[in-house]
Specification:
Blueprint: H1 2-6, H2 12-26, H3 36-46, H4 61-78, H5 82-89, H6 91-110, H7 118-147, H8 152-178, H9 186-205, H10 227-230, H11 234-254, H12 256-262, H13 268-295
Helix pairs in contact: 2-7, 2-8, 2-9, 4-7, 4-11, 5-6, 6-7, 6-9, 7-8, 8-9, 8-13, 12-13
Length: 300
């Protein structure tokens, strides 16, 4: 199998390099919580009149953190259609489009400054950005696994480890963009984040190639399910339940910075450091579990 894939005329490890760069970029969405406090403070300042009285209803943390929740939901749902999109247009084209939509969504969000525009955050930072994130994530991950049918756990571990690493690295990058005046620098932070992620995705896409179709099946008896067939199996819904429970912890990741600043009294820099430790643990865990799945015969 390995020799056959090499004979396809492309070094498959370059696909892993491209996948890692894309995963590093899209994984930064899990650093979103660092923007919650600047958004809250911006809305708070704008909700006061010249005399300092409340002139509008100020969104609370739950309303702002809902941005990340919507994005996470859209991210998960978007992965269902990835297989058909990649089959129709190819992994590189899908990834490029996803990267551009990601960057455009971040740019649009950076232009929103009014509490009455919170619903636009839900659309562009939640729906469109989350969908772009999920599509780029699943398209590159599934393609990378197909290139290494003999090392599915190891390769998926590498890919999603970089996904987790993105949230770790960008905690510091986003904090640097925001600086001390987090409200004034919020647009710069959002645009800088979007631009860097778009660059990572576009550069990574240069190394992507579709896995040879003839080599996709690892075992001749293995049935390749379509999306419709998959949704008719009980295992699919067991996985949905398992992932739903995992998402409860993901929600805490989305407001982790705020928990540190509001409940523990930490500065935003220290709260970001604590969340970064969570992110690096998440990264290491993904790599270890992926490697163990190969060793004990459990496919991811």
């Amino acid at each position: 199998m390995t020799g056959e894939l090499k004979s396809a005329g492309y070094n498959r490890w370059l696909v892993i390099l491209g996948t890692a760069l894309v995963q590093l970029g899209v994984g930064t969405f899990y650093a979103w919580s660092i923007f919650n406090t600047p958004i809250l403070k911006m809305f708070g300042e704008l909700a006061l009149d010249k005399q300092g009285h409340v002139a509008a209803v100020q969104p609370h943390l739950g309303s702002v953190s809902l941005i990340f929740s919507i994005g996470s939901l859209t991210l998960a749902l978007s992965t269902i259609v990835v297989g058909r999109l990649v089959k129709s247009f190819g992994v590189r084209r899908i990834t490029v489009v996803a990267g551009l939509v990601f960057g455009l969504s971040a740019f649009i969000v950076a232009q929103l400054h009014s509490p009455s525009q919170l619903w636009l955050y839900y659309i562009f930072a939640g729906v469109t950005l989350g969908a772009a994130d999920g599509i780029a994530y699943m398209a590159t991950l599934s393609n990378a696994i197909k290139w290494f049918p003999e090392k599915t756990g190891f390769i998926s571990g590498i890919s999603i480890a970089f996904y987790g690493l993105g949230s770790f690295v960008f905690k510091y990058i986003d904090a640097a963009f925001l600086g001390n005046d987090i409200v004034h620098n919020l647009p710069r932070g959002l645009m800088g984040w979007g631009a860097l992620v778009t660059i990572l995705i576009l550069v990574g896409s240069l190394f992507l190639r579709d896995a040879p179709e003839a080599q996709v099946t690892k075992v001749s008896k293995q049935h390749q399910y379509t999306t419709a067939e998959m949704l008719r199996t009980p295992q699919a819904y067991m996985l949905f339940i398992a992932l739903f429970t995992i998402c409860l912890s993901v929600y805490l990741t989305g407001i982790a910075t705020n928990l540190g600043t509001n409940l523990a009294g930490l500065s935003i820099e220290r709260a970001a450091t604590v969340v970064a430790l969570i992110a690096i643990s998440n990264t290491v865990g993904r790599f270890v579990i992926g490697t163990l799945s190969d060793r004990f015969g459990v496919d991811l």
